[in-house]
């Protein structure tokens, strides 16, 4: 994964929440990654590889858990909920997170769901800057030189 401020997207055929554990069933084996302007990079990483990197790096997700928007269909209607995620576990096509509810509510079960996870530097960290008149982007590991944005 090149250094960047990655935003992550995970899709599943259903989502459920028991007040502590968010369960995504039928989760895609790949997690979509994209970076905001000015980088505008895209990637697809194996969901298991993302989980394997969760605790790595100076500014990892375990030290600074990400916020996420869970967008789901409940009785044919879209519902959005904001959660904080920790402790991911993947078993087959079932992905679970310890989830702390920040805003909204999660029904016991839902139809298809998409999890939009707040930005991540990746295991090596990274800062991308705009250089030159041709909008050439240069990304480099941060090694702690640049402060991370404050959590939402």
> Which CATH top level class fits?
Mainly Beta
Ends apart, CA distance between termini: 24 Å
Main beta-sheet annotation: 9 strands, antiparallel
Rg calc: 16 Å
Q: Could you give the topology of this structure?
A:
Blueprint: E1 6-12, E2 14-17, E3 21-25, E4 30-35, E5 42-46, H1 47-53, E6 67-74, E7 77-91, E8 94-103, E9 113-120, E10 127-131, E11 136-140
Antiparallel strand pairs: 1-4, 1-9, 2-3, 3-8, 4-5, 6-7, 6-9, 7-8, 10-11
Short structural summary:
This protein has 152 residues and is mainly beta.
Provide structural commentary.
- The protein is mostly beta strands.
- It has a single domain (6-140), classed as Elongation Factor Tu (Ef-tu), domain 3 (Beta Barrel), CATH 2.40.30.
- Helix content is 5%, strand content 51%.
- It has one helix at residues 47-53; strands at 6-12, 14-17, 21-25, 30-35, 42-46, 67-74, 77-91, 94-103, 113-120, 127-131, 136-140.
- The protein is globular.
């Amino acid at each position: 994964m090149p250094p960047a401020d990655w935003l992550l997207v995970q899709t599943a055929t259903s989502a459920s929440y028991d007040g502590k554990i968010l369960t995504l069933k039928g989760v895609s084996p790949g997690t979509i990654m994209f970076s905001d302007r000015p980088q505008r990079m895209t990637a697809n990483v194996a969901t298991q590889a993302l989980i394997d990197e969760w605790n790595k790096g100076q500014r990892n997700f375990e030290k600074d858990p990400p916020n996420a928007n869970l967008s789901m269909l409940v009785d044919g209607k879209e519902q959005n909920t904001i959660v904080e995620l920790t402790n991911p576990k993947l078993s087959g096509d079932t992905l679970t997170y310890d989830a702390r509810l920040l805003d909204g509510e999660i029904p016991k079960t839902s139809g298809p769901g998409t999890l939009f996870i707040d930005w991540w530097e990746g295991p090596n960290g990274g800062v991308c800057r705009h250089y030159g008149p041709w909008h050439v982007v240069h990304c480099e590991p941060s090694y702690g030189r640049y402060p991370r944005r404050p959590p939402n």
